């Protein structure tokens, strides 16, 4: 259909109509204002109240398991990916040499107890000798005293009296020697009972060391966790400190989120955090809280720190690790693994808290497995001491 000149003129007039053009500009301006207002509202109520980063990784304790004594591996009772509990035997070493040393230490402890008992008996014997020599001295003095008047009356020869004086002197010297011997015997046991005698304590310490060394031929898990990086092999001859495997507890995990330096302005300890990981495709949301901020950037603690005081310097935005604690109940329902990446969002609405920790925190990891070994060694030493005290003697003598 052709356009008549009259229709073309009407279209040109409409395009040049100021009212229609103003209306179109008003619509466009309104759209831009609404978009800006929407962005401002989103920024004020959403974006300005959170800091987000995907440069975050799951962390946890990695308990390196090694031997404390040399030996040959005779049994491996666990493997990678398996769960172990604290105190569970993981590796066994050949116990032959340790058993021999333990028997020697046990005999030495028993012998030390018996020697101290003998020293106590020697003290009693020495005291009895002193008492006998005192009786001899008093008898010699009484004989001399009885014969002195006879000498004055010339009824007794002076030689006889002189012999009696010599007997008194000899009895006195014998008594002094007996007292010195008794004092020497008493010095070995004075001030302590049998169990706390220095010789017994030394033998007891040697026995405890030998007993603990024998127990260390069975290597146990210090904590609950999962085995990783098993390198020990059957029949291998290992040395103290050689790493055998790693036990990774999947409780008490944390996240190290590396925020840019311009994101740290409002991050504070105690702020709530939301976390998602690729492991569950973002369908699981974890909740944690900020427990600390790193004392420096990663570049400062690197093997070769950056030398910024050079001529060719380029500014690079640095990152600081922020430690985030996770909820163990959520970890039980949806376990995580050490080293996984995460996306974290910190709620910075309340930024009045401290930026640096001011009080010592609880120990991040501890175990009481080895305390039991020391207590058992002490109990075994006590048994040996009791067994060698005799029926008529106890530790308080």
Automatic annotation (TrEMBL):
Stretches that traverse the bilayer: 24-46
Pfam families (alphabetical): Beta-barrel_AAEA, HH_EMRA
Where do the Multidrug export protein EmrA/FarA alpha-helical hairpin domain residues begin and end?
96-216
Classification via Gene3D superfamilies: 2.40.30.170, 2.40.50.100, Helix hairpin bin (1.10.287.470)
Q: Domain p-hydroxybenzoic acid efflux pump subunit AaeA-like beta-barrel, which positions?
A: 254-346
Please give the chief subcellular localization of this protein: other
Where in this chain does the entry annotate a coiled-coil region? 161-188
This protein's superkingdom? Answer: Bacteria
Q: Which SUPFAM superfamilies match?
A: HlyD-like secretion proteins
Location(s) in or outside the cell: Cell envelope
Swiss-Prot/TrEMBL keywords: Coiled coil, Membrane, Transmembrane, Transmembrane helix
Its recorded name reads HlyD family efflux transporter periplasmic adaptor subunit
Native organism: Dyella humi
């Amino acid at each position: 259909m052709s356009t008549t000149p009259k229709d073309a003129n009407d279209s040109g007039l409409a395009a040049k109509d100021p009212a229609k053009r103003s209306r179109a500009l008003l619509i466009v301006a309104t759209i831009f204002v609404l978009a800006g207002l929407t962005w401002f509202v989103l920024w004020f109520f959403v974006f300005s109240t959170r800091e987000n980063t995907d440069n975050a990784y799951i962390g946890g304790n990695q308990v390196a398991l090694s031997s404390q004594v040399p030996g040959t591996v005779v049994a491996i009772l666990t493997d990678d990916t398996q769960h172990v509990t604290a105190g569970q035997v993981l590796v066994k070493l050949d116990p032959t040499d340790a058993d021999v040393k333990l028997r020697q230490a046990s005999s030495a402890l028993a012998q030390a107890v018996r020697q101290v008992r003998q020293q106590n008996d020697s003290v009693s014997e020495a005291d009895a000798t002193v008492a006998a020599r005192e009786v001899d001295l008093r008898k010699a003095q009484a004989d001399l005293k009885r014969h002195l008047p006879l000498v004055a009356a010339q009824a007794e020869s002076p030689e006889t009296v002189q012999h009696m004086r010599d007997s008194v002197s000899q009895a006195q010297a014998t008594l002094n020697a007996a007292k010195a011997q008794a004092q020497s015997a008493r010095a070995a046991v004075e001030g302590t009972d049998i169990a706390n005698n220095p010789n017994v304590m030394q033998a007891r310490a040697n026995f405890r060391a030998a007993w603990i060394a024998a127990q260390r031929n069975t290597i146990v898990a210090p904590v609950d966790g999962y085995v990783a990086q098993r390198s020990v092999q059957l029949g291998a001859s290992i040395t103290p400190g050689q790493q055998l495997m790693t036990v990774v507890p999947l409780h008490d995990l944390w996240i190290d989120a590396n925020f840019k330096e311009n994101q740290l302005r409002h991050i504070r300890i105690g702020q709530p955090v939301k976390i998602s990981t690729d492991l569950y495709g973002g369908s699981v949301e974890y909740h944690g809280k900020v427990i600390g901020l790193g004392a420096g950037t990663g570049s400062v603690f690197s093997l070769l720190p950056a030398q910024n005081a050079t001529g060719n310097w380029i500014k690079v935005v640095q990152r600081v690790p922020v430690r985030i604690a996770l909820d163990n109940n959520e970890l039980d329902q949806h376990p995580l693994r050490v080293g996984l990446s995460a996306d974290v969002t910190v709620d910075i609405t309340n930024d009045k808290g401290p930026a640096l920790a001011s009080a010592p925190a609880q120990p991040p990891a501890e175990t009481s497995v080895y305390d039991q070994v020391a207590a058992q060694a002490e109990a075994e030493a006590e048994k040996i001491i009791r067994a060698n005290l005799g029926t008529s003697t106890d530790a308080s003598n």
